[in-house]
Amino acid sequence: MEYDHIVIGGGVNGLSTAYQLAKRGKKTLLIEKFPLPHSRGSSHGQSRGIRRAYPDPYLTSLMEQAYKEWDEIMKLTGVKLIKETGLLCFSDDQDNKFLNQIINSFEKNPGAKNEVYSGEELSKKYPFISLGGKGVGCYDPSGGVLMADKALKCLQELIVRYGGVIHDGDGVEDIQHDQDKVQICTSSGRRFVAKSCVICAGPWSGPLLKQLGYTVPLQPIKIPVYYWKADHFLPHTWIYEGYLNPGYGVHFWGLPSLEYPGLVKICPHHGPEIDPDTRDKQCTDDIKQELTNFIRAMFPTVEPIVSVEESCIYTLSPDWNPILDTLPAARNIVIGVGFSGTGFKLGPVTGSILADLAMGIKDRQEAKIFSLERFSSPKL
Ligand SMILES: Cc1cc2nc3c(=O)[nH]c(=O)nc-3n(C[C@H](O)[C@H](O)[C@H](O)COP(=O)(O)OP(=O)(O)OC[C@H]3O[C@@H](n4cnc5c(N)ncnc54)[C@H](O)[C@@H]3O)c2cc1C
Q1: pLDDT of amino acid 286
Q2: What percentage of the chain exceeds 70 in pLDDT?
């Protein structure tokens, strides 16, 4: 069976790319190695944050399109995927670089509404946070929660509705290519052929690219996902970055009670390096302790004892921005990798960029922020 395009990986990025291709009338096959749905990659779970607040103004501007695309997906499927909560970014340090970058990014995107608060204003407005009148805050009213698992299901439904095929429970083992064709062989021994292929294999992307002769600096890390009991708490999603622990900056984030009534989600933005095949071998008790200390100091209404623990993976690129590009020696092999800790909300936009590359509308990434070239070395 020959396809126009094969997409490898059924996380949010592979699904979004396959959706964009199928919607454009292209004969599209998506191959996923685990039976769907699964919780082994980076896209599983009920919730992800969505927001315009990004430290980079370009990414804030891309969110304009992302909100439109999510709206379209909601209209097409009739499923509500976004819960509007607003987002509060805050720090106990008024000179915090991340906070100041976010405020600056909003200044460069005047259409994106926001409010900036002094430490005193924050303390008055948010008795749930013990800042003692210090720090700075930035409120993004467009912030909210994306219903992640439901979004994946909607994307799957739309791929099939537009004529695409989803082949799950069978991993890609080998990719052979020449200028016009890509041939894929899976673990069950099946062979598929297409004009181009898009690799969105999340934490497994590094080894797959290595088989093709490319060493791309990608590092999977484990992110423990914690839920904590709280009677009353911030109604918003939030991001904290600051210096509560003297000597180094910390970055934590959270969502209001949603998945499990009475429990709020409070998580780290860092974790240990892992092999995705053995994710939970790595203990994260040190991070649990950091968060317990943080909650004790910062959130008086949250019980500093973990109630529920789950696991997820970030696949980090060195600058935490994804790589959306073609391979220099094989323009019909496209890669969408390294989405780090923020790649869900932009999925439909990055999917559209990857679909353009797969169709040859562009043969390489022009925006430096997403190019493979930015990590180029003679040996890449
Ligand atoms: C705890 C946590 C919180 C997060 N919070 C946010 C947030 O608030 N907002 C936000 O925007 N982003 C957030 N992110 C980041 C976001 O979820 C990820 O960037 C995104 O899900 C990455 O999706 P992906 O499709 O690139 O990778 P994945 O979801 O990992 O998908 C890759 C898929 O490829 C498959 N695969 C791998 N190898 C093969 C193969 N050889 N053959 C076939 N299939 C293969 C895998 O099985 C997997 O299903 C968060 C991530 C985590 C872990």
Answers
A1: 95
A2: 97
Cβ 225 under 6 angstroms from ligand 1: yes
Domain coordinates of the chain in residue numbers?
2-47+148-216+318-375, 84-144+219-316
- The ligand 1 atom nearest the CA atom of 40: 47
Residue 246 has pLDDT above 90, yes or no: no
2-47+148-216+318-375 CATH fold = FAD/NAD(P)-binding domain (3.50.50)
| 52-66, 247-261, 300-314, 341-355: least confidently modelled range | 247-261
266 in contact with ligand 1, CB cutoff 6 A: no
Predicted pLDDT of residue 377: 57
Strands (E), 180-295: 182-186, 191-199, 219-230, 237-242, 250-255, 263-268
Whether 2-47+148-216+318-375 and 84-144+219-316 share one fold: the answer is no
pLDDT value for 376: 73
Q: Residue for token digits 């022009």?
A: 366
Ligand 1 center to residue 11 CA distance, Å?
5
Residue in 262, 254, 330, 338 with CA at minimum distance from that of residue 299 = 254
The reported pLDDT for the residue numbered 245 is 62
Return the best residue to mutate from 344, 345, 350, 354 for the ligand 1 pocket (most ligand atoms within 8 A of CB). 344
Distances (CA, A) of 13 to 9, 151, 157, 213: 8, 11, 15, 23
Output the CATH code of domain 84-144+219-316.
Answer: 3.30.9.10
